[in-house]
Amino acid sequence: MNQDILSILVNEEQIDAITTRIAAEIDRDYRASVEAGKKLLLLCILKGSVVFMGDLMKKITLPVEIDFMKVSSYGAGTASSGRVNILLDLHRRDLPDVDIIIIEDIIDSGRTLSYLIDYLKLKGANSVKTCTLLDKPERRDPALVGFHADYAGTTIPDEFVVGYGLDYNEQYRALPYVGILSPAVYTK
Ligand code: IMP
Ligand code: MG
Questions:
Q1: Three-state SS for 143?
Q2: What is the pLDDT of residue 76?
Q3: Which residue, judged by its Cα, is nearest atom 3 of ligand 1?
Q4: Is residue 178 lining ligand 1, measured as CB closer than 6 Å?
């Protein structure tokens, strides 16, 4: 195990079970709209969700399109700035024919996802749902208590985690599991 990881919170086997379950849920929920001619778009929020989306999309049997947005709500380190800035936008003209599932790595305050849902609905998407690998409900913004993703992998305690796409200052994204980062790394 990486020496900066205190403990593994979600291992490879657990992640595999999560992506299998969520892919089956998405297949079940979107079959009718795909058959009715709507396009299903997996919208990956860069960069942290790249690994999760890559695994998830392989297990969905419906035809899916993919796209990417980049937003920033975190500055450097482990503290949220509280703002959502769009750094890479979604540009397409057919959004009324598109069902979007936003793919996130983790819900923390909930500000990123709740902002993006409103933003993409305003842009005219046929529907907008959310999918997250991890959820830290203890950290929810007081204004967003009760906010949850439509598809969720697993709930985790209020610990700063890295791996499987998640970073600390751009490091640790390539670890194949989700682990708790040793506080020694960010307090030194
Ligand atoms: P929210 O807007 O506060 O829900 O923040 C969501 C974003 O914060 C995620 O997409 C991550 O990029 C980042 N984030 C929140 N918690 C963690 C963590 O424990 N490790 C790494 N990134 C995190
Ligand atoms: Mg991040």
A1: helix
A2: 46
A3: 109
A4: no
